[in-house]
Amino acid sequence: MEETEFTSEELEYLELVKWVIDYTKKRLNNGNEDDRKTAEKCLIEYHDTEAKVRTFAKMRTKHLREVEIENNRHKDEFHEVRCSKCKSVFALKPVGEQKNKQEYLCNTFLCPHCKESFCNWVPISDRGKVELGELVLEAMKKNKEPQDKIKAYKKSMTILEYL
Length: 163
Ligand SMILES: [Zn+2]
What we know:
The chain has four helices and five strands. By secondary structure, the protein is α+β, with helices and mostly antiparallel strands. The chain is elongated and about 85 Å long.
């Protein structure tokens, strides 16, 4: 099972709850009937809030691990790229990352033919891809590309937005 990661605030809170539970248990054994009833009620609440903090931390840890896996997935995938130097096309796995003009991270590759490293300038994130798509679309309109070509490109972008 995966280990839950707690924030410092959560650890502090759990420590405090543990102390309060221990203190209340002592009161449970030493006090009168009313004290005992109050202490029992409090213990249920303390255990309940403790469980809530643990569950929340567990869910957050799981979510963050999934995000991390998703963010690193591109590193294990093959991308069809063209070497900027020798123009050969390969299916390669990235060897690094580099920022483009819009400050989005893009993959870099090592050409097996000329051993040069190059960037494909396609943003890794979907948001970056959409922004790049919009720039390309603007350029297409400016260059007065045929309407059906623009339409087809727009359609491919719409798919991208829902990936
Ligand atoms: Zn090359």
